[in-house]
Amino acid sequence: MDPVFFIIFRRMRQPLLTLLVTYAIAILGLTLIPGQDADGNTWYMSFFHAFYFVSYMATTIGFGEIPYEFSNGQRLWVTFTVYATVVVWIYAIGTLLSLVQNKTFQQAVTEKRFARKIRVLNEPFFLVCGYGVTGSELVRSLIEHKQHAVVIDIDQHRINDLELDALIEAVPGLCADAQPPVHLIQAGLQHELCAGVVAVTNYNEANLKIAITAKMLNPDLQVICRADSHDIEANMASFGTDYIIDPFDTFGARLSTALQAPCMYLLHQWLTGMADQRLNEPVYPPVEGRWVICGYGRFGKAIYNRLQKEEIEIVVVEMTPEITGKPDTAFVQGRGTEAATLIEAGIHSAAGLVAGTDDDANNLSIIATAKEINPDLFTIARKNHNDNEALFDALSCNMVMTPSSIIANKIRALLVVPMLYEFLEMAYFKDDDWACEQVSRISGAISDVVPDIWEVTIDETNAYAVTEMMLRGHEVQLADIQRDRYDPDKPLNAVALLYKGKEGKTLLPSADLVLEEGDRLLFCGQVGIHRSMEWNLQNVNVLEFLVTGTIATQSKLLRLFLK
User: Fold this and answer.
1) What is the pLDDT of residues 50-73, one digit of tens each?
2) Under a CB-based contact definition with an 8 Å cutoff, are residues 545 and 552 in contact?
3) DSSP type of residue 347
4) Under 8 Å CB-to-CB from 195, ≥6 apart: which residues?
């Protein structure tokens, strides 16, 4: 039985039975008590008349006595039934109001409405479990790139935030624990249009359960999970989870890139940044000298392992080594917020400092104290809460690690622009000089915010004008779709990063590349330029002008006169 009807019948059973019995007794009494008509003859009310009279009398409508005036006995009985039915109605209505306010009933109704919305979805969507900082950033990116999402979160306040967020389209959201399979199924786990599941809750165990459920109930579905425990990662991998993102290991890998190839790190930051985010400045972490790591938890260990591979001298400061363990290198016990502890760790002669505890106040204090002692330090800070962004900005840290942003940016690259992930994988095989060249090219095409990233597929849906020109026998080159339609000699502020065709992938394809149906291209450029490119891709007249230099007219009458 439907949970909503089950709850209604269970809670309203007693009031409805009481109402039914009261009505039955009232009707029966009216049929048994004799009355007199206008001629003084005795008459008995039929069941139909009794039911009709009790129905309008009990609802206080009051049409009068039918079919004749009542006798004193009938009136006495009616007086009794009036009070009886009013009391029963008050009891029934009170129970109904209590039912409507019941949290369980409200949840059942909400889940039913939510499931109905999911059943009628007719476009591909991603199921996002967790609408915290990471989930909200991801959903916003999906919507801005014309993707669709469905959200589950255990916190009602976050679901309220989903409705209040200024998203350009409504996103269905359910307040529920995403771990039970029933809630994932309600959210569309087995829907034929579900494109993937993203588990980004704050709990590793919940993400693990979501990953297991998704892979067991829909094995072909793409599953992306957040995890910051190597044991949990191994468990997720054993069930075939497609992508497991550890923010600490991810940042450690990026720090290693910054140490070896600063331009490659900068290129990655620019291409994976959130919309409207200001461009990062180049960073040059010192590869020589001592590094002090305050906090030897998950983040501290990830940084420690990366620095150790670079053969950099490391001193670790940790308050509770009995919990986190001790490193093999130099170690000082303490928080790192005190000058004495930092001095003991050799902060005077240190080249770099990592404030990596799970407390933002401590991290801020560590950096402020260390900079008073050694103003030339290269500083890396772990920011656990986005609310403290202004405080970290005030300290002018060289690098700030925000777990939610790292996860959101990586998932965005995987889901919204999957070719970007392929581009970055291929780019890592290039040297830093190549990366510096690409940074220079991109900086010439954009302003002071991160570039817009978009994909183009050469087919009838996404590039109608290109396919139409091909059918007419014209060759369309990459340069043609990158021209300004108002000034064909001027290229659009866009850079082609990756080409995928029948013969494979090509980094930075040349402008004279001849496009074919089925080709895919990855572009980056000035925000809004992709809309200008849409004209070239979809409008046949515009593209014909760019390719042939002639302006076509669509007016048949004018064509007749021009012949």
Assistant:
1) 999 998 888 777 778 888 889 899
2) yes
3) G
4) 124, 125, 126, 221, 222
Report which DSSP code applies to 274.
P
Helices 133-144 and 156-164: crossing angle in degrees, nearest 10, is 30
Report residue 477 as tokens. Answer: 């080159």
Under DSSP, the state recorded for 60 is: T
Degrees (nearest 5) of the Cα angle 206, 208, 213?
95
Interaxial angle between packed helices 72-100 and 47-58, expressed in degrees from 0 to 180 and rounded to the nearest 10: 60
pTM of the model as a whole? 0.78
Question: What is the average pLDDT across 422-450?
Answer: 91
Contact 198, 185 (CB under 8 A): no
Q: Return the pLDDT at 556.
A: 54
Query: Taking Cα atoms as reference points, which of 113, 161, 144 lies closest to residue 408?
Result: 144
Contact present, 411 and 200 (Cβ < 8 Å)? yes
Side by side, the strands of the sheet bearing 452-457 are 452-457, 520-525, 494-501, 504-507
Tens digits of residue pLDDT in 147-157: 899 999 999 99
What CA–CA distance (Å, rounded) separates 134 from 228? 14
Average pLDDT (497-514) is 93
**Cα angle for residues 309, 313, 317 (degrees, 5° grid):** 105
Task: Quote the tokens at residue 108.
Answer: 């059942």
3-state SS track over 30-60: HHHCCEECCCCCEECCCHHHHHHHHHHHHCC
Structure tokens at 302: 């990830």
Neighbours of 444 (CB within 10 A): 9
Residue the block writes with tokens 């070896």: 260
Does pLDDT of 48 surpass 80?
Answer: yes
Give the Cα separation of 191 and 119 in Å (integer). 8
pLDDT on residue 553: 56
What are the chain's domains? Answer: 3-100 (1.10.287), 105-245 (3.40.50.720), 419-548 (3.30.70.1450)
Query: How many other CB atoms are there within 10 angstroms of residue 134's CB atom?
Result: 26
- 505, 431 contact by CB (below 8 A): no
* DSSP state at residue 451: P
- The residue type of 184 is L
DSSP H helical segments within 261-401, as ranges? Answer: 262-272, 298-309, 321-324, 339-344, 360-373, 389-395
- Closest by Cα among 444, 440, 547, 540 to 492: 444
Q: Are the beta carbons of 359 and 332 closer than 8 angstroms? A: no
**SS3 sequence, 202-240?**
CCHHHHHHHHHHHHHHCCCCEEEEECCCHHHHHHHHHCC
**Is the pLDDT assigned to residue 462 strictly greater than 50?**
yes
In whole angstroms, give the CA distance from residue 527 to residue 275. Answer: 9
Strand order in the sheet with 173-175: 173-175, 149-153, 125-129, 194-199, 222-226, 243-245
